[in-house]
Design brief:
278 residues; alpha/beta; Rossmann fold; eight-stranded mixed beta sheet; 10 helices; binds S-adenosylmethionine
């Protein structure tokens, strides 16, 4: 786990820098009239890496007074409890929805902010349009929506496809791509007048050839399978050749290319607060 999270942390650090979150949340609060706490839904909250990284990296002091009513959604009660345990002021743990996004009660909400970060990989393709519709209809007028998810050709999705094909004989469902979720959100949001804007973050996870334990732990978490050894992964059909293609002999390291599709939803006439650096 630790091996993976040393890399996954980079994913969340970059998302913390992709927008000016402090002022974006303040603006969302102002747009609802400024009374009461900001209402936020974290879709597929997992272990709460995104909010815990924001709490470390972003100035959220302007939200201390109104506070943020931070609702969590995840089908896993373990994840709901873990994410709630990471929340600190101004994020105040509020409702917990033990549900998938596609099954979220349409009467729940609305929220001033809805976000889903590295969240919907396991969503079944046939549930995608219902999930996108629930995401968009959960947004209050003037609200802010944000999605971040690995792109089709990024390492997370490519290594999993190679694993299913080379080790699992094609059984299992490939992860859903950021492009697929972003397209479904666009289709659900644009007819309702939401402004949709998109950015792609590109970066690498780099592991030295000599860091074999780290590499094995990292790949196992990418594959959600603690079974295969590094030797087995390197020797497997499809997966082995993919991993060989990530080698950089000059650097003595594997370079795993990541690309993350980021989608922002804002009210008509409101620009999404992407930072200049993103
Ligand atoms: C990688 S984690 C999300 C990470 C998280 N956003 C963070 O900031 O740490 C993916 C989560 O999606 C949840 N999940 C799987 N299918 C889902 C669905 N259809 N709707 C909502 N959540 C789902 C899983 O239970 C898991 O906790």
């Amino acid at each position: 786990m630790e091996a993976f999270y040393s890399f996954a942390q980079l994913d969340y650090e970059l998302l913390a820098g992709v927008a000016d979150w402090g002022s974006a949340l303040v603006r969302a609060h102002e747009r609802r009239g400024g009374s009461g706490p900001l209402r936020l839904l974290d879709v597929a909250c997992g272990s709460g890496r995104f909010p815990s990284t924001l709490l470390k990296r972003t100035d959220l002091s302007a939200l201390e007074a109104p506070g943020v009513e931070y609702d969590l959604l995840d089908p896993s009660p373990f994840s709901l409890a873990e994410a709630a345990g990471h929340l600190r002021a101004p994020f105040a743990p509020a409702a917990r929805y033990e549900a998938t996004l596609e099954d979220l009660d349409p009467k729940a909400g609305p929220w001033d902010v809805v976000w889903a970060t590295h969240a919907l990989y396991a969503l079944h393709p046939e549930a995608l349009s219902a999930a996108a519709e629930r995401f968009v209809s959960g947004l209050a007028p003037g609200g802010l929506g944000f999605l971040a998810q690995g792109a089709r050709d990024s390492h997370y999705l490519t290594v999993y496809r190679a694993f299913l094909s080379g080790v699992r004989a094609g059984a299992g469902t490939p992860y859903l791509s950021g492009e697929a979720v972003a397209d479904a959100l666009r289709v659900a949001a644009e007819p309702l007048g939401w402004n949709v804007s998109r950015q792609v973050l590109e970066y690498e996870h780099i592991v030295g050839y000599d860091q074999t334990e780290l590499l094995e732990g990292y790949l196992r978490r990418c594959l959600f399978d603690d079974g295969p050894t590094l030797e087995e992964m390197l020797a497997a059909p499809v997966l082995g050749p993919y991993l060989a293609g990530c080698r950089d002999d000059d650097a003595g390291a594997y370079r795993f290319s990541q690309a993350v599709v980021c989608l922002g939803l804002t009210a008509r006439g409101e620009a999404f607060p992407w930072t200049a650096a993103s």
